[in-house]
């Protein structure tokens, strides 16, 4: 049995069906999108079985991309959850066959209240006839050799749901900043939401005077847990940084003197950031560009914080 050949057949069959469906899209799909866009309330997605699983994913995608939405199970709807649908909502009902009894049982109650229904099913099905607008799930064949397990049909359903979500995003002019608002804990959300001031180290910064000895600076570095010491002049302005890298290089010098002034071995005029409101992701890009471990944050040339590359990467930026 050639497993790879079987897998390729499945993927090719599904890909070919998606391409075929793309060429079949017409004003019916556009009208369905427009009805969803005009909805003043929520776009409620419902379906049972495999269609129900896909419906839940579509609802989650819509909700995260600017279209208020949630999944409603038809059986629960028959036992009280119909009250979750308001007259300002629109329902997207999904059933490949278009004949799912649990789904069909709730649609007359929905229509009786004047709520619009977008159907996604086989053409000519009961769901098709009950729908105000319709998206066809007419496929050539399933990938399942028995023609029983939903495969191509569920892939098409999911893809149409993605197409609907993206069309609505475009119509709503949904931007990255909007996406971040709904995903503050996600990677993109953090990139567009977290500022330097939110993540920089502010407390107990390892700051010493620029006239201290290297021995004193090393002790401060050890307790500072930053791998770097910040050297300031009498006015408090940053003049140099002494990193563990600077220290290792100093140890290799023939005239190394632990009692010498630390600034003799420090990096003068270090890279700094004077904008604590910069996005943390942008600061990370600066750290990578400068090929440094720590970026000192200053205000009026005085150190107010420090950004370590490990702190930023640990956030998933």
UniProtKB/TrEMBL annotation:
<dbReference type="GO" id="GO:0097367">
    <property type="term" value="F:carbohydrate derivative binding"/>
</dbReference>
<keyword id="KW-0677">Repeat</keyword>
<feature type="site" description="Catalytically relevant">
    <location>
        <position position="183"/>
    </location>
</feature>
<feature type="binding site">
    <location>
        <position position="73"/>
    </location>
    <ligand>
        <name>Zn(2+)</name>
    </ligand>
</feature>
<feature type="domain" description="CBS">
    <location>
        <begin position="200"/>
        <end position="258"/>
    </location>
</feature>
<dbReference type="InterPro" id="IPR046348">
    <property type="entry name" value="SIS_dom_sf"/>
</dbReference>
<dbReference type="GO" id="GO:0005975">
    <property type="term" value="P:carbohydrate metabolic process"/>
</dbReference>
<dbReference type="InterPro" id="IPR004800">
    <property type="entry name" value="KdsD/KpsF-type"/>
</dbReference>
<dbReference type="Pfam" id="PF01380">
    <property type="entry name" value="SIS"/>
</dbReference>
<dbReference type="Pfam" id="PF00571">
    <property type="entry name" value="CBS"/>
</dbReference>
<feature type="domain" description="SIS">
    <location>
        <begin position="33"/>
        <end position="174"/>
    </location>
</feature>
<dbReference type="InterPro" id="IPR000644">
    <property type="entry name" value="CBS_dom"/>
</dbReference>
<protein>
    <submittedName>
        <fullName>D-arabinose 5-phosphate isomerase</fullName>
    </submittedName>
</protein>
<dbReference type="InterPro" id="IPR046342">
    <property type="entry name" value="CBS_dom_sf"/>
</dbReference>
<dbReference type="InterPro" id="IPR050986">
    <property type="entry name" value="GutQ/KpsF_isomerases"/>
</dbReference>
<dbReference type="InterPro" id="IPR001347">
    <property type="entry name" value="SIS_dom"/>
</dbReference>
<dbReference type="GO" id="GO:1901135">
    <property type="term" value="P:carbohydrate derivative metabolic process"/>
</dbReference>
<keyword id="KW-0129">CBS domain</keyword>
<feature type="site" description="Catalytically relevant">
    <location>
        <position position="102"/>
    </location>
</feature>
<dbReference type="GO" id="GO:0019146">
    <property type="term" value="F:arabinose-5-phosphate isomerase activity"/>
</dbReference>
<dbReference type="InterPro" id="IPR035474">
    <property type="entry name" value="SIS_Kpsf"/>
</dbReference>
<keyword id="KW-0413">Isomerase</keyword>
<keyword id="KW-0862">Zinc</keyword>
<feature type="site" description="Catalytically relevant">
    <location>
        <position position="142"/>
    </location>
</feature>
<feature type="site" description="Catalytically relevant">
    <location>
        <position position="50"/>
    </location>
</feature>
<keyword id="KW-0479">Metal-binding</keyword>
<comment type="similarity">
    <text>Belongs to the SIS family. GutQ/KpsF subfamily.</text>
</comment>
<dbReference type="GO" id="GO:0046872">
    <property type="term" value="F:metal ion binding"/>
</dbReference>
